[in-house]
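Lab notes, practical 5.
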Amino acid sequence: MKSSAFGLPASLLANMTTNEAYVSFKNYLDNILDAIAPEKNSVKIQPNNIIRSQWMTREHLKSSHTVQKLYRQRYNRMEGIQLK
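Output from the prediction step:
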């Protein structure tokens, strides 16, 4: 049995509608991308690696951290998802 370019038998591909063939091809590409370059859930940037402007004083940083902390608390209550 002859197979097509993305792993399906040619006879099966010939009997598919355009939408079915598209979904099959998209799934095939997604599988390849997941195998080669899986998605990361999050990227962590260390606070000491952040480039800081001159106007960003310690007080501004403290306020920023407070706002981030409050946002995480509020978001966790609303969505039930824990942010890191």
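Observations recorded by the TA: The two ends are 51 Å apart (CA to CA). The chain has a mean pLDDT of 78.
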